[in-house]
Amino acid sequence: MKRLLAFPLLAVLAIPVFGQGVGYTNTPQIRGQKWKVHDKDRPNPPTVTPGATFSNGAPAPSDAIVLFNGKDLSRWKSGNGDAKWKVENGYFEVAPKTGDIRTRDEFGDVQLHLEFATPSKVEGDSQGRGNSGVFFHDQFEIQVLDSHKNKTYADGQAGGLYGQWPPLVNAIRPPGEWNTYDIVFEAPQFDADGKLAKPAYVTAFLNGVCVHNRKELNGPTNHQATNPYKAYSGKGGIRLQDHGNPTRFRNIWTRAIGTYN
Ligand code: MG
Q1: Which residues have CB less than 5 Å away from ligand 1 (the ion)?
Q2: 124 CA to centre of ligand 1 in angstroms
Q3: pLDDT over 70, % of the chain
Q4: What residues does each domain of the chain span?
């Protein structure tokens, strides 16, 4: 009889804990931090109401690569084929279960402007509500989520460096409204032996509010896991996540980060 009872108890321990905090207790320690990955006890960031517009609708500078001009997904791909997400009215929308889409272009250090809207019809909760994400080099996710009055773990909030750093503040707009991301991603560098010479850093503004100030990533971002860097070229595409929610995107452009003379 006791053996039979053990199984339901284990099942309960393996799922996120809902209550005072939302998150996990059984995940690994984040390297260099006192918190566990998706720690249910990590305080959520304070909420900030952003100003009215900031870079909403920002026209691309003259040296930018325009990745989406409101018309087509020609600069994006899905797996080995064309991107299948829905394009309409100047934006595109995740077509759930068609998979992530990735830029055909590759970037090193890069400035990214992007706008997104979480679904106006609120469905699901925690990480199941308006979840998508912006991945640099297929490895480093800055979270897209409907974090508006939605309890979830701190390092999974919109603006979070997923599983590593919560945003400094929660500056998301309500469901259905357009948010702006202005991000500087510095790629990691590796020496000739493949050892990490410089980690990746992220500086990010969500709706004009600083959510990361050149924050160091300790490796690729992961769900319930923490993994070290693996040497690669330091170049890669930008990938948007199909997490099953019809999140919208528009006005996407990048610039290379120049060097000082
Ligand atoms: Mg995500």
Answers
A1: 131, 133, 241
A2: 14
A3: 92
A4: 17-256
